[in-house]
Amino acid sequence: MAPGLLDRSRTVAPPGWSRWLIPPAALSVHLSIGQAYAWSVFKPALESSLNLSGTASALPFQLGMVMLGLSAAFGGTLVERNGPRWAMTVSLLCFCSGFLLASLGAAVEQYWLVVFGYGFVGGIGLGIGYISPVSTLIKWFPDRPGMATGIAIMGFGGGALIASPWSAQMLESFGSDSGGVATAFLVHGLVYAVFMSLGVLLVRVPAEGWQPPGGKRPQEQQSRKPLVTTANVSARSAVRTPQFWLLWVVLCMNVTAGIGILEKAAPMIGDFFADTSTPVSAAAAAGFVALLSLANMGGRFLWSSTSDVIGRKNMYRCYLGVGGLMYLGIVLLGDSSKPLFIVCAMVIISFYGGGFATVPAYLKDLFGTYEVGAIHGRLLTAWSTAGVLGPLIVNWIADSQEAAGRSGAGLYGLALSIMIGLLAVGFVANELIRPVNPKHHLPEPASAAGQAEGTAGHEGGAEHKEATGR
Amino acid sequence: MTTGENSTPGAAAQAAAPGGPPTALFALAWLWVGVPMAYGIYELVLKVTKLFTGG
C-alpha cells in the first residue's frame, strides 16, 4: 500500500529542496495559533450576548493555555515520532475544529461548548502546533538553530497582532450578538484551516546525510563551545537531568518577570506618570501596550539569532542580568523620565520574547537534536507555571499597596523588586548549567539513527531503544 | 549548486536548481505569511503612534 500523505517517508525533502521553505511552513502554523493571545477581542461580545461575567468569558483562553502546556508536554514524543506534517495536521484539525465547535456553541447559546471547543480541543492544537516545527527547523539549520526557531516563535507573537484587528473588524461587520460571534468563529476556523494548510503541504525533513549549504558546519562542529554537545539524550532521560530543571527555572523566572510587566502595562504607565506634567492618556497607554507587543515579537527573532553568535548561556545572562538592571532602572528612575521608562520596559519585553525563542536552541545544545521537540514540549510547563505566577504576584501586590494607601509608581515598587529577585534566581540557575553527564547520552547507533531522522531514522532510533531495552 | 545550498532566501530563490522548488513557490510561501504579518504590524504601528502623539 502506498504511504499516506502524512507518512514520514512522504516528507523527506527531495534533492535540491531549499531549507528556506521551512520557515514559512512553520510561520503559517505559528501565526495562526498565536491568535490565542487575541482572545480578549471576543470577551465583551461574549459577555453581552451570553450574559457572562469577565471571569467566565476568560475561561476558553485559560483552558486553552492549560491544554497548550499539557499537549506540548505529553504529545512531544508523538510529534517526534510521527514527524512535522502529522503534527501540523493534528494542530490544524484541533485548532480549527475548536473554532467550529465554538461557533456552534455561540449559535445555540451553549457556552460550555465554546469553552470545550476553543479551550479544550483548540488548546490541543495550540500545544502540538507550537512544538511541531521546532526540531525540524533545528535539523535544517544546524548552523543557525537560534535564528531558525526565532523565526517560528516570532510568529506566535505575531499571530495576535494579525488576529486582534482582524477579529475586531469581523465582529464589527457581523455584529456582537451571539449570531455575529458564531459567524466570526466560523470564519476564523475556515480561514485558519486554509492558512495552516500551507505548512502541512510545504514542510519537509532533511534527507539522510544532508549537510548545511556552502560548507557551513553545524554549531557543534564549529570552534569548541563547551555547552554544545555532539551527543544525544532522549526526552525520558533529559527530564532526569539537573540541566533540564535548571533550564526550567531559567525559563520560568524569565517569563514570570516579563508577564509581570505585560499584565499591567497599560495601568502601570498611567500610574507612573499620573502626577507629572505629562500624564498618559488611555489611547497613549494602548500605544505603549502595542509598542511592547512589537518588542516582544522583535526580541524573539533578534535575540535568538544573536544567541547563535554569542552562545546560549551568554544570551540568558543578558536576559536575566541586563533584564534585572532594566527593572532596577524602572524602580529607581522610572517616574522621572517617560522615555527611560518606555525603553526599559521594551528591553524587558524583548528579553521575555527572546527567552521563549532561544530555549529550543539551548535544549539542542545540551541534549542534541534526537528528541529536542519532545524535550521542548516538557519544558513548556515552565511557561504554564509562570503564566499563573507572574500576574498573581503583580496584581496581588499592587492591590495590597493600594489598600495600604500608596499611589502612582509606589504601587509597583515592591512587585518590581520581587521581579528583580526572580531574575536573580534565574541568573544563578543559568550559571549552574553544565554539560550533561555522558551517562545520559544515547549509545552511538541510536544517536546516529536519531540524527538521520530526516529519512526513516527516527523510527530506527525508536526501534533501537526497544532493542536495547530502554 | 542547489537551492538548498544558498544561505539566504533571496539567493535561494534566484538559483532554483533542477529538481528543486521553483522560484514561484518561494514567492508564494513568503507572501502567504508575509502579507498578513505586514497587515498586523501596520495596524500595530497605527496604535503606537498614539503613544507619541497623545491621541
UniProtKB/TrEMBL annotation, chain A:
Transmembrane segments: 20-39, 59-79, 86-105, 111-134, 146-168, 180-203, 244-262, 282-303, 315-334, 340-363, 375-397, 409-429
Any Pfam family: MFS_1
GO CC field: plasma membrane
Keywords: Membrane, Transmembrane, Transmembrane helix
Any GO molecular function: transmembrane transporter activity
Presence of keyword Lipid biosynthesis: no
Membrane topology qualifier: Multi-pass membrane protein
Biased composition (Basic and acidic residues): 460-470
Domain Major facilitator superfamily (MFS) profile: 1-433
UniProt-annotated stretches for the region Disordered: 443-470
Listed InterPro entries: MFS (IPR011701), MFS_dom (IPR020846), MFS_trans_sf (IPR036259), Proton-linked_MCT (IPR050327)
PANTHER family: MAJOR FACILITATOR SUPERFAMILY (MFS) PROFILE DOMAIN-CONTAINING PROTEIN-RELATED, MONOCARBOXYLATE TRANSPORTER
Protein name: MFS transporter
Organism of origin: Streptomyces abyssalis
